[in-house]
């Protein structure tokens, strides 16, 4: 599990959903939660929260420019690649620490990913959880 700490900088609510923006050392993360500031007191601008997402939810893009709908795009450098028969584990330095991505070994080979290569890690807004 990837776990980062950040500060809530914005909360937009509609019905029982909130779009929450969190600043983690100048990297912006956005997530949709099925809570509002009325039902979850931690959803307050300025609060420190944990940003949590599974390694299997980190999508890798080669290069840094991608026209995709994902709002969570983090440029990083591949530190390690551990290739398995079906899946590979990538450790990525994002400047404020490391995150891990688990993708298929076929994808690693097709993208010709290499250690020290600059990539873009992407996480869908509905795949990020928050915790106090």
Describe the structure.
By secondary structure, this protein is mainly β. 5% of the residues lie in helices and 55% in strands. The protein has one helix at residues 105-111, and strands at residues 2-14, 17-24, 27-33, 48-53, 59-62, 72-83, 87-93, 98-104, 118-123, 129-131. The chain has a five-stranded antiparallel beta sheet, with no helix packed on it. Strands 5-9-6-7-8 form a five-stranded antiparallel beta sheet. β1 (2-14) and β2 (17-24) form a beta hairpin. The longest helix has 7 residues, at 105-111.
User: What does the main sheet amount to?
Assistant: 5 strands, antiparallel
Radius of gyration over C-alpha positions, nearest whole angstrom: 16 Å
What gap, in angstroms, lies between the N and C termini?
16 Å
Q: Provide the residue-averaged pLDDT.
A: 93
Q: What percent of residues are in strands?
A: over 45%
- Alpha-beta classification: mainly beta
Placed side by side, the strands forming the largest sheet appear as 3-2-1-4-10
Q: How many H/I helices?
A: 1
Order of helices and strands: EEEEEEEEHEE
Helix amount, in percent?
Answer: under 10%
Care to count the β-strands? 10
Unreliably modeled segments: none
The quaternary state of the protein chains shown equals: single chain
Name the overall outline: elongated
Question: Helices and strands in order, then pairings?
Answer:
Elements: E1 2-14, E2 17-24, E3 27-33, E4 48-53, E5 59-62, E6 72-83, E7 87-93, E8 98-104, H1 105-111, E9 118-123, E10 129-131
Antiparallel strand pairs: 1-2, 1-4, 2-3, 4-10, 5-9, 6-7, 6-9, 7-8
């Amino acid at each position: 599990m990837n776990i980062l700490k950040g500060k809530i900088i914005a909360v937009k609510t509609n019905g029982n959903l909130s779009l929450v923006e969190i600043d983690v050392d100048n990297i912006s993360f956005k997530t949709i939660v099925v809570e509002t500031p009325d039902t979850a007191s931690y959803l307050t601008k300025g609060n420190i929260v944990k940003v949590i997402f599974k390694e299997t939810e980190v999508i890798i893009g080669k290069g840094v420019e991608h026209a995709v709908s994902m709002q969570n795009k983090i440029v990083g450098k591949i530190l390690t690649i551990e290739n398995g028969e079906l899946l590979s584990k990538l450790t990525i330095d994002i400047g404020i620490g490391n995150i891990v991505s688990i993708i298929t070994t076929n994808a690693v080979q097709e993208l010709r990913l290499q250690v020290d290569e600059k990539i873009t890690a992407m996480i869908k807004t509905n795949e990020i959880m928050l915790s106090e």
